Amino acid sequence: MSSRIVAPAVLVAALVTIGCTRDTPAAAPPGQDGWYTFDGAWSATGARHTLPIDPAGRVAAIVQLAGAVAITTDDWIGRGFHGELIGFDDGHARSTGRWVWTDDRGDRVFGDVGGDPIQAGRRFVGTITGGSGRYAGISGQVEFIWQYLVEADDGVVQGRATGIRGRYRRGGGQP
User: Fold this and answer.
1) Residue 43 has what pLDDT?
2) What residues contact residue 53 under an 8 Å CB cut-off, 6+ apart?
3) Extended beta strands in the chain, E state
4) CA distance 109 to 135
5) How far is CA 7 from the centre of its chain?
6) CA atoms of 122 and 29, how far apart (whole Å)
7) Phi, psi at residue 133, to the nearest 5°?
8) How many of the other CB atoms lie within 10 Å of CB of 93?
9) What is the C-alpha separation between 82 and 61, in angstroms, rounded?
């Protein structure tokens, strides 16, 4: 089974490590505008399915990824999550996806992500669209650089997103 580096099919965020969480620390005060910031990284494994879309060899792709997202922040949000993403790359102009991060308590953060056609080094941006449990009412923004995607002949892919940065606020405010 040979491996090669290919243009990733989509993100994310997202984003995801159960076991990296620790007890909830005392909440740090938000910035003057009510926002908290975070940084992180995401390593993921999954499957990529492609469909040729033209004679030039371009392909559209669907990807399903899951793996560890590790977050650094001074606030109450979990430090590690199991992240999952389903995404679509149209092979021409746009990539889009939906993701969920689940902490060790089963509470979730939901979001979406999008970007140009995926290639190593491309930046993706997304929105934190809500949460459950202790993340209920969360909103915010996230961005990251998709570093690489390695694909084996059997369709299994492994990838890494670096430079995850974002901001969020508690309660129902818009990002």
Assistant:
1) 94
2) 59, 60, 90, 91, 92
3) 3-5, 36-52, 59-72, 80-89, 95-102, 108-115, 122-131, 139-152, 156-169
4) 6
5) 16
6) 33
7) 60, -130
8) 8
9) 23
Q: Residue 160 is encoded by which pair of tokens? A: 């890494």
Which residue reads 């399915």 in tokens?
49
**pLDDT score, position 31:** 63
Compute the residue count for the chain: 175
- CB of 132 within 8 A of CB of 124? no
* Domain ranges, ordered by start, for the chain: 3-169
- Round to whole Å and give the CA distance between 173 and 138: 8
Rounded CA-CA distance 3/29 in Å is: 46
Average pLDDT for consecutive 10-residue bins of the chain (175 residues)?
A: 36 31 44 84 92 92 93 78 94 91 95 79 89 94 84 83 90 52
Is there a contact between 79 and 63 (Cβ–Cβ < 8 Å)? no
| Integer angstrom CA distances of residue 62 from 39, 56, 96, 165 | 27, 19, 10, 25
Side chain identity at residue 20, one-letter code: C
Q: Is the pTM of this model over 0.90?
A: no
Residue 64, class by beta-carbon neighbours within 10 Å (0-12 exposed, 13-18 middle, 19+ buried)?
middle
Q: Give the per-residue pLDDT at 171.
A: 77
